[in-house]
Automatic annotation (TrEMBL):
<dbReference type="Pfam" id="PF04459">
    <property type="entry name" value="DUF512"/>
</dbReference>
<dbReference type="InterPro" id="IPR045375">
    <property type="entry name" value="Put_radical_SAM-like_N"/>
</dbReference>
<dbReference type="Pfam" id="PF19238">
    <property type="entry name" value="Radical_SAM_2"/>
</dbReference>
<dbReference type="InterPro" id="IPR007549">
    <property type="entry name" value="DUF512"/>
</dbReference>
<dbReference type="InterPro" id="IPR001478">
    <property type="entry name" value="PDZ"/>
</dbReference>
<dbReference type="Pfam" id="PF17820">
    <property type="entry name" value="PDZ_6"/>
</dbReference>
<dbReference type="InterPro" id="IPR036034">
    <property type="entry name" value="PDZ_sf"/>
</dbReference>
<dbReference type="InterPro" id="IPR041489">
    <property type="entry name" value="PDZ_6"/>
</dbReference>
<protein>
    <submittedName>
        <fullName>Putative FeS-containing Cyanobacterial-specific oxidoreductase</fullName>
    </submittedName>
</protein>
<feature type="domain" description="PDZ">
    <location>
        <begin position="1"/>
        <end position="38"/>
    </location>
</feature>
<dbReference type="InterPro" id="IPR058240">
    <property type="entry name" value="rSAM_sf"/>
</dbReference>
Length: 437
C-alpha cells in the first residue's frame, strides 16, 4: 500500500525501541501527515513533539506521543532507504561512464541514479531532469541542503544535446527556484573536448556566478573515456595544451570571483594539473575542499596531511619490506611522499607500483577504477614484500570487492601476499607503511 513504510530495524536503546516499535511495523503518519518518502520523514521527525501512527502486523494501530530533543532521531530504519523507489536517470548523456562499461559486470553497476533525495542524503550529483515541481517545492519548504547539480553547461540547447534530453535546458529553471529559496548548492561540469569547453565554458562560469552566494562551488572535470565507446558520441581525450587552456580560463575566473566574493568558486579537478604538468594549487585555493568527491583537491589534501603527519613523528631503524599499488594519476605524488618517509625510516623498503588500467582502457588513470584482475595480473611475480597496500577507493564502500567482483582474498591468493587497505588520509598512509594501522 502506498505511503505505508515497513520498519526493518529498530536500534537498541533508541526512542523507537522504548515506544515498543518492532521490525515489521508500518509507519502510517507523523503528526497527521502522510509520509511520502525520506524527505517528509526527516522533516517531520525532527520536531520536539511528534505523534506517530503505527500499524502492527495484525492490523492494530498505535498512536504514540513522543517528546524528545529537536533533531533527535527515532532509531528506525525502513526496508527502502529512500522510503520509496529509486528514480533512474532519464538522460542519455554523451559522456555517461555507465554506457562505457563492458557487459557482464555486477547488475547494480549499470543502474543510473538521478534522484534528488540521494543528492541530499549522499551527496550525489543530479541533472534536475528527473526532479518534479513537487520535489523542488519540498526541498525549499523543508530547506534540504546542499543539493548537488550536474550543470555541464548553462546553454539550454547545448545541454539538451549533451544529455540527449529535450527537457534538459528547461530543467535549469529549477536552479532559479532553489536560489530564490536560499538553498545551498554545489555544481559540476564534465568537460568534453570541442563540445562545452572554450567559449561555452566561459559562458557557463559567467552564468553560474549569478547564483552566488547559494551556489558554493563548481568543479570542472575532464570526461572519462573508456575503450568501450563503440556506437557512442565521438569524444576525444584532452591534450596537455588543452589542459593548460582550461586551467588558464579557470584561474582567470577564480581571481575575478575571489576579488568580488572572497571565494574561488570554480575549481579544476586534479587531473587537469597533472595533464598540464603544472603544480597543484595551495590549500587556500580550494575554499575548504567542497569538491573532494569530484577529485578536486584530493592530492593536495593528501600531501598536506602526509607532510603534517611526518613532521610529528621521529624516525627510527625499524625494518619492513612492503609494496603499494596505485593508479597513474596519483603515482608521481605518492612517489614523492614516500621518498620523504624513507628519509626518516631508511630501513623500510617500499615498492611502489603504477597499475595500468587494462580493464577500462589506459585513459582511465584513477585508482578508484582499478580492477582486481588488473592488480593481480600486473603485480604477479613482482617484489611485494610482506604486505601489499592498496587505497580504500579501489573497493566498493564498506566491502572487500573490486569493480570486477574480484575480492581482496582473490588478489591475496593470486599474489600470495596479504593485502592491507589504506584509508584515505595522509596520516592513514603513514600508519599503514609503518605498520601502525
Amino acid at each position: 500500500m502506498k505511503h505505508e513504510h515497513i520498519v526493518s530495524t529498530v536500534h537498541p536503546g533508541s526512542i523507537g525501541e522504548e515506544m515498543g516499535i518492532e521490525p515489521g511495523d508500518r509507519l502510517l503518519a507523523i503528526n497527521g501527515n502522510t509520509i511520502e518518502d525520506v524527505f517528509d520523514y526527516h522533516y517531520y521527525v525532527d520536531d520536539e513533539n511528534i505523534v506517530l501512527l503505527i500499524e502492527k502486523p495484525d492490523g492494530e494501530q498505535w498512536e504514540l506521543e513522543i517528546e524528545k530533543d529537536e533533531d533527535e532521531g527515532l532509531g528506525l530504519e525502513f526496508g527502502q532507504s529512500l522510503m520509496d523507489e529509486y528514480r533512474s536517470c532519464r538522460n542519455k548523456c554523451m559522456f555517461c561512464f555507465i554506457d562505457q562499461m563492458p557487459a557482464g559486470m555486477r547488475e547494480t553497476l549499470y543502474f543510473k541514479d538521478d534522484d534528488s533525495r540521494l543528492s541530499f542524503l549522499q551527496g550525489n550529483y543530479i541533472t534536475l531532469t528527473n526532479m518534479s515541481d513537487h520535489d523542488v517545492e519540498r526541498i525549499v519548504k523543508y530547506h534540504l541542503e546542499p543539493i548537488n547539480i550536474s550543470f555541464h553547461t548553462t546553454n539550454p540547447e547545448l545541454r539538451c544535446k549533451m544529455l540527449h534530453n529535450r527537457f534538459a535546458g528547461d530543467a535549469l529553471k529549477k536552479v532559479d527556484i532553489l536560489y530564490q529559496g536560499g538553498i545551498e548548492m554545489n555544481g559540476q561540469i564534465v568537460l568534453c573536448k570541442g563540445v562545452n569547453d572554450g567559449a561555452e565554458l566561459e559562458r557557463s562560469i559567467r552564468d553560474l556566478t549569478g547564483y552566488l552566494p547559494y551556489l558554493k562551488s563548481v568543479s570542472v572535470v575532464p570526461v572519462g573515456l573508456t575503450k568501450f565507446r563503440d556506437g557512442l558520441y565521438p569524444l576525444e581525450p584532452f591534450t596537455k595544451d588543452d589542459a593548460k587552456e582550461v586551467l588558464r580560463v579557470i584561474h582567470k575566473w577564480q581571481e575575478q570571483i575571489y576579488e568580488a566574493h572572497g571565494i574561488h568558486f570554480i575549481h579544476a579537478g586534479d587531473e587537469w594539473y597533472i595533464l598540464a604538468g603544472e603544480e597543484l594549487p595551495r590549500e587556500e585555493r580550494y575554499d575548504g575542499y567542497l569538491q573532494l568527491e569530484n577529485g578536486v583537491g584530493m592530492l593536495r589534501l593528501l600531501m598536506d596531511e602526509f607532510g603534517e603527519g611526518l613532521e610529528r613523528i621521529k624516525g627510527d631503524d625499524r625494518k619492513r619490506e612492503l609494496s603499494f599499488a596505485t593508479g597513474r594519476l596519483a603515482y608521481p605524488y605518492l612517489e614523492r611522499m614516500l621518498s620523504r618517509l624513507k628519509e626518516k625510516f631508511p630501513n623500510i623498503t617500499l615498492h611502489l607500483y603504477e597499475v595500468r588500467n587494462d580493464f577500462f582502457g589506459e585513459l582511465i588513470t584513477v585508482s578508484g577504477l582499478i580492477t582486481g584482475q588488473d592488480l593481480a595480473a600486473q603485480l604477479k611475480g613482482r617484489e611485494l614484500g610482506d604486505t601489499l597496500l592498496i587505497p580504500c577507493n579501489m573497493l566498493r564502500t564498506g566491502e572487500d570487492v573490486f569493480l570486477d567482483d574480484f575480492t581482496v582474498k582473490d588478489v591475496e591468493k593470486a599474489l600470495q601476499v596479504p593485502v592491507d587497505i589504506v584509508k584515505s588520509s595522509g596520516q592513514d598512509l603513514i600508519d599503514a607503511v609503518l605498520g601502525r594501522n
